[in-house]
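Re: beginner question about structure tokens

> Can someone show what the tokenized structure looks like for a real chain? I only ever see the sequence side.

Sure, here's an example I had lying around. Input first:
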Amino acid sequence: YTELLTRSDLFEVFFVSGYYLAASAVQIVAALYFATVLSFDVRFRNFFKGVLFFPYLINGVAIGFVFLYFFQDGGTLDSVLALFGHHSGHAWLGTPVSANTSLAGVSVWRYLGLNFVLFLGAIQSIPGELYEASALDGANRRHQFRHIILPGIRPVLTLTVILSVSGSLSAFEIPYIMTGGATGTETFVIQTVKLAFQFNKTGLASAAAVVLLLIILAVTWLQRRLVPDDRVDLV
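And the corresponding structure tokens:
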């Protein structure tokens, strides 16, 4: 623990978590938007539900290999861009900024379905009489979202924020498969795995794992204090 806490370079990898934290914010907003839209009667609603949730069912290793080819030079993304006359010649995983942005985008695509299902279930648990009463009072969709949906899903929204923050700090599967932590994409968990199995510093790796757990618990406690989970009586 002394070595871990006196080596600042071991904590520099937390800057990479900023990309995943920003991506989680985008993910929550997108999931909440789609859940709100698909909670009402729209065409092909069940089809879009399946499309949004399907990526979460795919194995993370398979996703990593698929998007590894997707982002490589001359891969799927470059081929699609070439169809529109745009020849970027850009190495999507070649620089720290573009690589971390690409990896964070993959995380958004994969975990969007989980938050979508959580939000959708919470929205559908709100009594329909509230929408009918608000419509009679002249409320539009925006008013219903602000005054009915948001208060009704607040506990679930708090849960998704906690899961997103902890997931951002402990990102591992996708960056490990796609880059192995190279090009400035090493996360704290990847660093811990390398300490244990590549450098045989199991004691230091164990200490790092415990510190990560404590950091996640501290962030979760702070978030719960700043945003208290006060259930709102909708009746």
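Each token stands for a local structural state, so reading them left to right follows the chain. Residues 8 and 14 are 11 Å apart (CA to CA).
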